[in-house]
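dumping these here so i dont lose them again. two proteins, back to back, each one seq then structure tokens. dont judge the mess
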Amino acid sequence: MNYPQRAVRGVRRRAVRGASQLATAASTPFRGLRWELRPPTRWPVALRAALAIAIPLTIATLAGHQSWGLLCGTGTFTVLYGAGRPLRSRIRLLVLVAVGLIAGMALGVLVSGNLLLSITTTALVGAGATFLAQALRVGPPGAFFFVLVVGIGGYLPTHDIDPLALVLATTTGAAVAIPIAMFDLILDRFGPERAAVAAAQRAVDRWVATTPGDPHAEDRSTEATNAIHDAWTTLWDGGEPVASPPGPGDDPSGESVGETVRAELATDLIVIQQQFSERLLPTQQANPDLGGEPTAAPLGRPPLRRMITRALRWPTTSLQAALRVAAGIAAAGLVAGVLVGSGHVYWAMAAAALVLHTGMDRRATAIRSVERLGGTIVGIGLFLLGGFADSGLWAVVVVVVILQGLVELCVVRNYTVAVVFMTPLALTIGTAGSGQAALVIAQDRLLDTAIGVACGVVVPWLVGWRSGRRMVAAHLSRAITSAAGVIGLLATGRHQDREGLEGQRELALDLQELSATAGRAIRDEPERIADLVPVRDATAWLGFTVLATASQTSPGEALERVAPAQAPALELAARISGLEVPEAREIRAVRAMVGKRPPLG
């Protein structure tokens, strides 16, 4: 698959003019990336979240049914998903999330009235949602709201809330949220694509600025590789970035404008990728084998089936996180519902899911738990002092809308502050028009949160507590195997055809997963994987070098000199899979076969 000639000409004009010119170009932003002047903020997301709950709540309050408007909030959670995704990808994700939330509410309603069945169902939904969110790279807020909605569906029907009204409210909220979640694309349809390319430029600039021996070099290279991969994924999510630009007689509007923008962004990203590759493969003289311009676009997100298949290869973070979430939800539900007899068991289950569903390491999980509990305590104080639930119907509307916006504004930068606003938001919704005493429900909130976060802290020490070494070894083996596959395709000149691009995509994904898995294992079990750290570093450099070489080698050109590297790479992967740890120098030797320069002259 080829780039349009316009894109190729753009690369020819702006890209490879020698290593010194590339280094100079890398030190300043491209003129085409002017949108980079302002860093992204959470204001658009916060405003969309506030508007999504404001519309149904205001209409319901005017109609005299404020409680039903508050229930619509279970569907407006949809608005929180897909931020930063382009139009085509975002609408698909939002529809799937909406369907999932509605189905979750219906499932919770079906099992309400049976505590053990409700706990079991919530645990299974939590595990499934966590696995899919991780496997499909859904991004924040991940699986959490699916767990919360199922829990609400199991709780409210036991307190005289019409089950059908619950499902209808969730459906209404989701229907309102989907168009609101698209508002930012009305102002700039290609904003996500531009932001992704700009992020790749920043990451590569940081990588180019590293000096020999810089201890952060490997991290900077990882960040650059991930950013380039994510930028290509975003471009493909928004539409094929290699469509032909409009011809002289075409109307420069509609799809033609979109094709032109995507072609220009693809051109920028080719240049960025060339900067990364040239910096990764430095030389004092131009390398004939690296002189070609890349003319085949890296592929975007893998098909859904492939992403799920990848995540099902044991061991993976997706499977481990799903098991931990199921265990945490079940434990929190049993402690809160059976041992303590709490009135809001779903709060405990949701708190456990919240600290576990992202698959963080044990230390980060403990920190998140402390933040959750501390923020809850302060938030309860704010709720009791403010008397939000007793201030009248319209005061409730204003409070809920403002708090919803504040939560989304703060959740990324300071989670504790976000929880401070999240707690009175939940308590205001829970007490408004219910007749329940504010102090009693606040006590339940604190108790259930404490139970949930305690279970969340304990579970990682019981489920997969010594799995770090096995997981790192498995990901090392996968990354080296993928690198060997691309090496073989390079040797036969098939690195830029469909099979070659798929192989490069697999390698990029494996490197991302290796980086994340190794990082967690280093923090959880530093002594047990100490001997794997140099191997991890060498494997990362091997993968980066293979990707850079594939990017810089002309389509159809057989790079026969790399062929001898494939067999030792496969042999190393097999040894690591059997938990035999090779020397890092063995992997570096394979990398040298790929990245070495042939003699000139």
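---- next one ----
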Amino acid sequence: MTKVMFEDVEIGGGPGAVTQVVTPRQLVQYAAVSQDFTPIHYNTDYARSAGHDDIIIHGALKTALLSQMLADWTGDIGAVKNLETSYRGIDYAGAVTCAGTVTGKRVEDGIGLVDLDIEFRNADGVVTTPGKATVALTIRGD
């Protein structure tokens, strides 16, 4: 796993964009773990009868995928300290993209903190879940 050090991070940089496919099976698994068995997340007929094109991704799963993107970027030596998201659109199972861009960095109490704008995009590239995050990174010499 890549180890991102505080000194290597630049404003405008960051984890970039990570595209993955959210499958119906993954939504059923997430429903089991989260105990959110609302049928629009796993039953296509029900979701369509409720006016949706297909089954929809849980909002909390979108936040979890954004958190995973950050954790993969920071590696074992970093930590996600704060994560805020705003659900502004529905996402259907299929290709989605998580992205992050560094907006600031600072040192507080000897810890390197990096602020990012994060976003979850649907298959059409529309941002449906914007947010902000702060990660802690190791400072060289620590």
